[in-house]
Amino acid sequence: MFKLASAALAAALLATPVLAAPATTGQATVNVTNLNPANAADAQRLERRVERAAFAACGGHEGSVRMLKRTVTRSDCYQDTLAQARAAVGIGQQYAAR
Question: Rounded CA gap, 74 and 26, in Å?
Answer without folding.
Answer: 17
